[in-house]
Structure formats: C-alpha cells, structure tokens
Amino acid sequence: MAQWLFKTEPSEFSLEDLLAAPGRMTRWEGIRNYQARNYLRDAVRIGDPVFLYHSSCREPGIVGLMEVVRAGYPDPTCLDPESPYYDPRSTPERIRWYTVDVRLIARLSAPLPLRTLRQERALRGFQLLRRGNRLSIIPVTQTLWQHLMELTTLLPL
DNA sequence: GCCAACGTTGGC
DNA sequence: GCCAACGTTGGC
After folding, report:
1. How much is the pTM?
2. What does strand B contact on the protein, if contact means CB under 7 A?
C-alpha cells in the first residue's frame, strides 16, 4: 500500500464539490502530465489513502482525506471533444492519459495550510514543499504520512 | 498580476 | 538528440 496527495484547484473541483457528489465519489480526471499519469496507471491501488490538497487559491493546503476506490484506467475525457480535458492525440484504441476513482473519507477539522507545512522540520524533503514543484499526484512516504496525520484532526463524514 | 520553475513541442 | 521557444503551474 502507498499513500498519496492529489492536488486540485478548488475553482475547478473542490472539497465541497466532492462532499456534494453522489457517494462522495469522483473520477480524478484531467491529469495531463506523464509522471502523474504513470503513477495513476502503475502505482495507485484500491484502498490507498490520499490527502486532498487545494492549490492556486487564497489558502493552499490539505483539506481532506480520500481513498482510492478504483485503480488506474484510461481517462474517458480524452475522447470527449466537449470536455476541457479532450486530447486529440488519443484514440479509442490508445488513450494517452489515465485516471482513478476516489471517495471522500473525512474532512479536516481545519485546513492544514501550506505555510504550516513549511514550518514543520519533520516534513523536510516532502516533494510538495520543493521549490517549483508542479506535480499534481504526489507519493507520500509512510514516515511523512504519519507526520502529516499528527498535524491533523479528521472529521468523519 | 507577477514571475520562477518546469514540462512540452518542434525545428534543425 | 539537442535545445530554444513557448505554455502551464502555482505560490506569493
């Protein structure tokens, strides 16, 4: 089992959107980066826990805990010309990008802001905190995961 | 809105 | 295969 952090821009898709979704589940679609694609395709497994992170917003930070309910499969939005994630280079036989399904497990009693994470010595080396980090599917080591859990209080749904 | 960092594209 | 140009991400 591995642990992950998925980024989303709340103006596109937020914790609140996930709370409102049927079964509090969603397809994590629209990932268009090869490294992230490879994680989704090869490494993210059913049952893996995932922190939900809000980026490009007033207060970037971790806001929720999800779990993977379906492992990697070709992202159908690649073939949908109406979708903002449409990929003209994909074909039904060869879809370039992958997705997984996730379900919200808990929200945090309070968001865990990026600026707090930066102050934690125990989180040094966390890929999320690296300068210029742009990866939206980030693996979290067990050690980092435990440290992060110690900084949070979960509110079960 | 700015801009640093990084990924992708495409000409050669 | 190199690398300049360009586009995107994302914190601030």
Report:
1. 0.95
2. A 33-35, 130-134
pLDDT in tens, A121-153: 999 999 999 999 999 999 999 999 999 999 999
List, in sequence order, every residue forming a beta bridge with A137; answer none if it has no partner: A6
CB A51 within 8 A of CB A5: yes
Round and report the angstrom distance from CA (A25) to C1' (B8).
32
Which pLDDT belongs to residue A157?
87
Q: How far is the CA of A37 from the C1' of C1 (A)?
A: 24
Q: Which CATH number fits domain A3-156: 1.10.620.20, 3.10.590.10, 1.10.1040.10, 3.40.50.150?
A: 3.10.590.10
- Residue A34 clears pLDDT 90, i.e. is over it: yes
Q: What is the largest CA-CA distance in chain A?
A: 47
